[in-house]
Amino acid sequence: MFIEDVFSGAVRYGSSVIFATQGEVISERAGVINLGMEGSMLCGALAAFATASATGSAVLGIFAGVAAGAVLAALHAFLVLWRGANQLASGLAISFLGLGLTAALGVSFVSKQITGLGAIEIPVLSDIPIIGPGLFAQDILTYLALILPFILVFLLARTRWGLVLRATGERPEVARAYGYDPRRVRAVATTIGGALGGLGGSQLVLAYTLNWVENVTVGRGFVAVALVIFGAWKPVQAAIGGLVFGAALSLQLQLQARGVDVSIWLLQMTPYVLTLLVLTITSRRQSQQIPEGLKAVFGGGKAA
Amino acid sequence: MTATTPTAPSASPPPILALAKRHAAWLGPTIAVVIILGSLPFFGISLPDVLIRCCPLLLTALAVTIPARTGLVNVGGEGQFFLGALGAAVVASGLSESTPSLVAIVLIALGGMVFGALWAGLAALLKVASGVNETISTLLLNYVAALIVAYAVTGPLQDPEAANFPIGAPIPDSARLPLIGDVHVGVIVALVCAVGVSWLLARTRWGFKARAAGGNPIAALRGGLPVASLIVGALLLGGLLAGLGGALEVMGPDGRLRQGLGVGFGFLGFLASWLALHRPGWVVASVVLIASISVGGDSLQIDLSLPATSVYVVTATVLLVVLGWRGNRTGEQS
């Protein structure tokens, strides 16, 4: 059934982006923009794929993917927070580094096959028409992507950790007054964010593509950064953006599979065009919501 | 970070040093270029290949430089280059062998510049009208641009004789760029553009305003500078240069539009401009360096059968080191 397939695809294809948006939310709420998210996703994807291919265990792959994503983000944190590097330039350079590294190291994995994460069907619920297969017949990481935004909302709003994180992003001097080193908090948040990006990359190869190609993420990490703005730095809204991106991708694949006579190239543009479109509609309004600590980098002209 | 305290002048330099300092903007980079080019034979890298590679990279780098000095991060050189190549192919498809060479070349170059500028203009419009951050929009537009080219060379612009290869029809021979030795004249055009950008930023009223807007946009706005139109102008100029790069690549080495033409050039140009802290003279030098790495990497990649993007590892690492090393001091520039 068409709608059911599109919805199910939206959830599965959107999950990798959801993880990346959640990671970016954590990082940006603490005051660090991480355009290296694309690099974290790519390195996470390759690490996960390589590990799954070598050990035959997709679960081990997840751990490797998370670690790889975290390492790249930690590098970004170090350069930005300790060496005063420009956030946007450092993030982009890290994304290029990830792209180059995974292209070079991934060559030998191009034709390899892996056993991905299997779908876990939840009885009864997965038989609900239209939304059942999408929400209740997915792999473990996709379930996690659906729950994570709500966990993050709770963590940010209701825990000490969340309070310190938000304070660091809005008023670092307040965090410092309470005995927290803003730089340390930001570094930890950025690294966790990158780890989630790596998790997203893992989901992409372990649950969706099941093979490795150069630049497998094709901009999903950058899309995630855009969707965080769209989501006004709120976890659930950003995740909805991820689902919309997934839906555009899914719709495009479904139309292609059904032999609709539109150029595949034009169809492939839909997710990017849609992301730009939602940004255009919401950017002006969202600029009120931007964390104080980000204004110097994102809001004004000067990026330093 | 916003307050740029001038570094305390220890003593005013003697006149001869002041004179040398005025021309130092190009002296240092020239020495660097000579050293890099002179050392190529030791690495077995072909000088003409490096010069030919400099042409697209210099233009995509300058496409980053002008917006950067205006306080904008244009990561869209890649897409603007693609669209420039597309514009060139569109114009070329309307020309015939009988079109005089100079006319054909100028028309195709204009086509590339217009397409490139429009693509960057889209990001400028989104920023000025809707407040969309240009870093994000130019990044995303790159993916769209690549797909537009893919669509064109598999559809409307596909070479009818190409048997389903994703390539456009060859452009007329009269529109191919003349060669000086083994190098096409586009390299000189690119160098002239670099000098032009340097002059524009350093010596013109527009350049002064643009740099003022880049240095402190709020102060510029309060001071009555037309910040929005400066932003649009800077991005249009950047896109125009990257688009020219795409057109020159079509008229130069390639002779036609094809899928994957110039992939990575926009990003390498981005790295080059940031490496040089957006000072035009040093942008030339860093482009020569990155072009050398890129050409040297090509043969290495063929030997080791690595994909072309592997060269990012080297160039991105260099930029990360530079960012980390001098990041604390970037506040001093301009």
Mean residue pLDDT of chain B: 88
Oligomer: heterodimer
Q: SS-based structural class of chain B?
A: mainly alpha
Main sheet strand line-up of chain B: 1-2
Average pLDDT of chain A, rounded to a whole number, is 89
Order of helices and strands of chain B: HHHHHEEHHHHHHH
Query: How does the overall form of chain A come out from the CA principal axes?
Result: globular
Total number of distinct structural domains of chain A:
1
Low-confidence runs of chain B: 1-10, 329-334
Task: Return the CATH class of chain B.
Answer: Mainly Alpha
Structural write-up:
The complex is a heterodimer of chains A (304) and B (334). Chain A has helices at residues 2-29, 37-55, 58-82, 87-105, 132-136, 140-158, 160-170, 172-177, 182-209, 220-230, 235-257, 264-286, 295-299, and strands at residues 120-121, 137-138. Chain A has 304 residues and is mainly α. Chain A has one domain (2-108, 136-294): ABC transporter involved in vitamin B12 uptake, BtuC (Orthogonal Bundle). Chain A has a two-stranded antiparallel ribbon. Chain A starts with a helix and ends in a 5-residue tail after the last helix. Residues 300-304 of chain A have low confidence and may be disordered. Chain B has 334 residues and is an all-alpha fold. Chain B has one domain (44-164, 173-329): ABC transporter involved in vitamin B12 uptake, BtuC. Chain B is built from twelve helices and two strands. A two-stranded antiparallel sheet of chain B has the order 1-2. In chain B, a hairpin with a 2-residue loop joins strand 1 (179-180) and strand 2 (183-184). In chain B, helix 2 crosses helix 3 and helix 6 crosses helix 7. Chain B is globular, with a radius of gyration of 20 Å. At the A-B interface, helix 3, helix 4, helix 10 and helix 12 of A face helix 5, helix 7, helix 10 and helix 12 of B.
